[in-house]
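Methods: holo model generation. Sequences were used as deposited, without trimming of termini or removal of tags, and paired with ligand SMILES retrieved from the corresponding compound records. Each pair was processed once, and we did not select among multiple samples. The sequence and zinc ion SMILES for this entry were:
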Amino acid sequence: MDLIRRRRKYFFATIILYMPLMWVSNKISPTFRSMAITFGIWVVVLFITALYSALARCPRCGHYFHMNGMSLLYLRRCLHCQNHINAS
Ligand SMILES: [Zn+2]
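and the model returned the structure below.
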C-alpha cells in the first residue's frame, strides 16, 4: 500500500504546487509566454502523476486501485474490493 500512497502524494502535491509555481514564474518573468510555458509544464507533470497513480494496482485484488472501467476516482478505498488505503 506504500506505493499507492506515495503515488497519490505526488499527484496531490502537483495540484497544490500549481499556485506557488505560477506565483514564482510571475515573479521571475511576468510575461504571458513564460506563464504559458510554466502552465504547460505543470499540465504535463500533472498528467504524468495522474497516470502514474491511476496505474497503481491494489495489492489485494490486483486491479487498478483508482480506476474502474472509464471512471477514475481518488477515493481512499479500492474501487474493486473496498480495500482501504491504510490497510496493511
Ligand atoms: Zn482491490
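The chain is about 55% helix and 5% strand.
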